[in-house]
Amino acid sequence: MQDPKLIDSNTMGNPAHFCALEDLERSLEALPPAPTDQGRVGLLVMKGQGGQRQTPEQVLLTPAAKIPGDAGHDQEDSDGETQLAIMQRDVAELIASGQPLPLFGDNLFLDLDLSTKNLPPGSRVRVGKAILQVTPVPHDGCRKFRGRFGDNALRFVSKKELRHRNLRGIY
């Protein structure tokens, strides 16, 4: 497995780990249901200089600074709707297929059902002492996601009939 400290914003995935669309769909159906009310933080990821990934044991979440020191979110987010990127950990593990989770670039990996049914926009989630609010901004895959996990992974998270599951995550 690749060392998260060697992953940065330009790191691409290993095509040997890319999954077939049918395998992703079958594996998703085999996952046990995620908790709907009390989950846990499975992994924290911060992006340092050049997007270099760090996996601290804890972070301070603030409304003004998001995660202080996180270079990935130093970009202007004037409406505050994309401050933190969050993925459901078991779904991320399925898509990563053995690659390290920091490759995604998301900040929090939760053991929690992130579906629209469970967490519609406006829902509040307590993480430690912080209260996070789910925004309506869709968290979609992009060219970097495709380069890290393949075309099939991008098609998987974008499938209309699965969109309500927020497989790519939420903000």
Structure write-up:
- By secondary structure, this protein is of the alpha+beta class.
- It has helices at 21-30, 89-96, 143-149, 151-158; strands spanning 40-44, 46-47, 53-54, 86-88, 108-111, 124-127, 130-133.
- It has a 3-stranded mixed β-sheet. Strands 2-3 form a two-stranded antiparallel ribbon. A two-stranded antiparallel ribbon has the order 6-7.
- α3 crosses α4 (151-158).
- The mean pLDDT is 91.
Note the run of SSEs as H and E.
HEEEEHEEEHH
Spatial arrangement of strands, main beta sheet: 1-5-4
User: What is the helix content?
Assistant: 10-25%
Report the radius of gyration as a whole number of Å.
Answer: 15 Å
The helix count comes to 4
Low-confidence sequence ranges: none
Which structural class best describes the helix and strand composition?
Answer: alpha+beta
Instruction: Please indicate the percent range of residues in DSSP E strands (runs of 2 or more).
Output: 5-15%
State the separation between the terminal residues, measured CA to CA: 27 Å
Number of strands: 7
Mean pLDDT: 91
Label the overall shape.
Answer: globular
Largest sheet: 3 strands, mixed
Secondary structure layout:
Blueprint: H1 21-30, E1 40-44, E2 46-47, E3 53-54, E4 86-88, H2 89-96, E5 108-111, E6 124-127, E7 130-133, H3 143-149, H4 151-158
Parallel strand pairs: 4-5
Antiparallel strand pairs: 1-5, 2-3, 6-7
